[in-house]
Each structure stands twice: as C-alpha cells, then as structure tokens.
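so i finally got all the pieces together for this one. its two components total, 498 residues if u count the protein bits. some of the lines might not be protein, just check the labels. i wanna see the whole assembly predicted at once instead of chain by chain like last time, that was a mess tbh
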Amino acid sequence: MNMDKKSEIIKKREKKIADLKGKNINPFPNDFVVSHTVRDIKQAIIDAPDSFTEDDPVFVVAGRMMAINRFGKASFIRFRDRTGQLQAYVRRDKIGDEAFILFKQLDIGDFVGLSGGMFKTRTGEWTLLVKELKLVCKSMRPLPEKFHGLKDPEKRYRRRYIDLIMNSDVRDVFIKRSGIIQAIRTFLLDRDFLEVETPMMQPVPGGAEATPFVTHHNALGMDLFLRIAPELYLKRLVIGGFERVFEINRSFRNEGVSSRHNPEFTMLEFYQAYARYEDLMDITEEMFRYVALEVTGSTLIPYQGDTIDMGAEWRRMTLASALEEIGGIDAGLLNNRDKLLELAASNGIKVTKTGRLGKIITKLFDVLVEPKLLQPTFIIGYPVEVSPLSRRNETEPDLTDRFELFIAGHEIANGFSELNDPADQKERFLQQAAEREAGDKAAHYMDKDYIEALEYGMPPTAGEGIGIDRLAMLFTDAASIREVILFPHMKPAERGER
RNA sequence: GGGCCGUUAGCUCAACCAGGCAGAGCAACUGACUCUUAAUCAGUAGGUUGAAGGUUCGAUUCCUUCACGGCCCA
C-alpha cells in the first residue's frame, strides 16, 4: 500500500494517541525503569520454584505485546523482551479501573511496562500477575498475523525489523552469526593475534581479483576505491612487525547479486609470520571445529539436507587430481590448451580466447568439481598465473603454496604462503596489468607502494581469508546469503512499497 | 544479461486456466465473557487487484511494456 495513503487501522491508532494525550497520558514516555528481564524471572523460577507467591517477589519488566487474549474483565497477554517471551495476566480487580480502561485501548505491538508477582495458571504455565501496567511505547502500525507471520521475502528483507519481531528463527540466525564472529575472535586472540582495522577506502584496490566500487574524495580531489580485500594492508603490518594480525570486516565487490553474493560482504583475513600454508590448513580445521562446538555444540553440521562432518580429518588434494578424480578430466589434458578450451565450451563455460592456461583450468574446476565438494576439502597446487600474491612452490615453480577450502559446494576460504620476494611480486603485478590492458577488468592493479614495502622485507608469512557470510550460511543452514545479512542490498521499491 | 514464477485488505492466501457484482482466516471495530494460549460466540467495517497502455459491451482474469522480488542459468 502506498505509504501516504493511510489505512483505516493507522487512522484509528492516531486517534488513540490523540485520546491518550487528551487524558494527559504520554504515549511515548521515557521514565519506566526496568529491573528484570524475562530471562531473570524464568531463571528465578528454575532456581526456587516453591518460593513464589502472587505478591512476592515483585518483578518489574517491559516488552512488546505479541498477543492479547481478552476476556471481559481480565486478559492474558504475551510480551517479549530481548531475552524471551512471557505470559502475563491482567485483571481489572488487580490493576484498578483506570489502568484497566487504558489497557483496553492498547494494541498488539505496543510496549508495556509491568510489575507483579508470579503464579501458575491452571494449565501449569508460570505467569506474571500484573499489579501495575504502564504504556511504554505506542505502536502505529499493525504487526503481521501471528500464526503465519511475515513470509514475503521482499518485505522480510526490506523491513527486516518486522521479520525480527515476528520470526524467532530469523532472530536466532543473527544471534548465531554474532556468536560465530565472537568465537573466531576468541580463537585468534588466544593465539596471540592482534585485531586491526585497515583502510576501506584505498587509492589502489588490491588483494583480490574483482571489480571495485569507485568513490570520490572532494577535499583531496581524488578517486578512491572501496576495498575488495584488506590483504595488502595487513601484510604491510606484518612488515611493520605485527607478526600475527587479523581483521574481520566488510569488503566490497562491484559484481552481480545472487544467493551467494552480496556487493558488500564480511571477510576474516589473518596473517601469521613464520607459518606456512600447511600450518594454515591445520589452524583452519581447528578453528572451524572450535566455532562449530561453540555455536552449535557439535562438529556435525546439518546443511540443506546433508550433514557436514567438521570433526573427521579434512581431505587435501591437488587441483590436478581433483580435476581428474572428481571432474573426470584426463590428467594428460591439463597442459593441452586447445583441448581444455573445447572442454570448457562444451560445458558452457565462457573463457576469453586469450585466457591463460591456469584460468581455464580453474574455471573448469569451478563448474566440474566445486559443486561436488560436499565435505570439507582443501584443494592445493594452484597455478602461479591465477595466484599473483602467493609464494611459488619450491619444487614446482609453476605452482604456488596455496589452498582453497570448499564445503558444501561453496568456496569458504583461500590461503597461502605469502610471496615476499619484491622482484617476483613486481613481475606478477606487471603480468596482471597486461591482462587488465587486454580487457580483464578484475585483474590485479599494480601497487608500487606495496612493492616498496616488500623491499623493506616481510618475514616468511602465511595468510588466509575466510568468507564470514558463507560460514554463517553453513552454520545456520541458510540457502541464500540474504538470510545471514541483516539488510541485504535491494533496489528501491517504486513509490513506497508496491 | 537470459529463462521460469510471483506481486490481490495490515498479514497469510482464494478467485485467473475457461473474462461477468473481488472472497476467507487472522489482525481491526462494536458487544458478551476473570485460566486463555492460532481462545470462543454474535455482529460491523476494511480493496486504485504493483504501474501504464491495449483488446472487449465488460479485465484481478487475455495481450504489450515497465517496476520490484524469488528460483535457476550466464
């Protein structure tokens, strides 16, 4: 409905507010003092269920009314605060005639402040017997229907607050997401990592292959890019002597929106000096098991009808062997550019004609192997031309000391031993710059300042990025990234809302 | 960017295929009710059917375009 055309219900609420003001009752007061939460009350009952009478002790709580069952001179209401939901019993002979008349004017969705003692109803439900009732905040708009709630995904995302009011499973998803981030933070802090914040607006966007958003700084008179990754700044910090650093925050990529991509997304990146990429794989397994236990209490994670087993040892295999074993591509073909191009075309994969061998191989992997990697799997042995920031493998210099982690058919993490040879890094950037010239908008930018930093010396270091949104999807059994982002990006609705 | 589907009362959905007064439940309003919990009972009101255009005596329904969203593909 158009916002500026008020529904009958809203007009009636406006009239109620005017009536309240007429009776000198503030519909939006600011003086109600809460002394208990619903959780406090429930815990008190668990602790000493026999010590309650209707009059003692007295609890003072506040919350939003979610349901009202009215009888003539008494009502049951359900209200909720941040800690839970509780039933209260409002009787005219307990709160007095004046308060009861006010109460009769209240609506589902209003906030009330209540005080009273606890008793058990005939059906055995602990209930607050209200002695005093105050309006704490009037609501103007009706909430969705209590039984079906709010289902329309468009409305759920655009007006997430209603989604959160109505759908407790949605609330739980975001509580869990917060728990995941907290667990990761604890895990890293316990290992002597330092949490840092690096620029989100960067003069040269680096650290990933992606198209950046461009913005403009007026006073400096220059364009800046929203970061596509924090990587190059975090490595500058390792150069500066912070040997273990991490950052959990947003990055931005100016690309398509889908059930797996939001233009802004949250990433953990962490860097550890004197570690190698093999160490990171061990740490990653440890971290995920820790998070799983902290957040779900188990290392068996149900996801979209499957069960992900975080507890068992995670498989590690090379890109080449994965392509052969899972993708069904004969290992002998992996150096045959023409054959691979044919194969790509027959699988409907678009590859630029000039695309380098490593690009074609990883594209084939994305289509033929990635969706099949259900259980946690590390893929190692990535070609150097698709890994411009990774250290070369000592024995096979065309490959890098790099892994990606796949779970439930999604790429979850990417880590490697860092390239710390400034001359090699410069060569890699030049190669990327050439690909950018050739039309690959996502190719890495040359970052001379970063090269200069490397020239001061970066100790051998391994670093990793983990997609927090995808991790949250995994732990909350969400099929779409929008279910784990509070306010996913949407086009503005035309004129109000439909 | 392409394909399919959707948009009807505050919310959840009918009616559309095969054109003929747009309905229900919950929410709201009036009344009854002091142990309900999707309370119950009696009654009332609430609609620019996403937008614009076309076909038609007549369009929520058929056609075109557009907007927004969902799923799948790129």
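The CA atoms of residues 118 and 124 of chain A lie 12 Å apart.
The domain at 8-143 of chain A is CATH 2.40.50.140 (OB fold (Dihydrolipoamide Acetyltransferase, E2P)).
anyway lmk what u think
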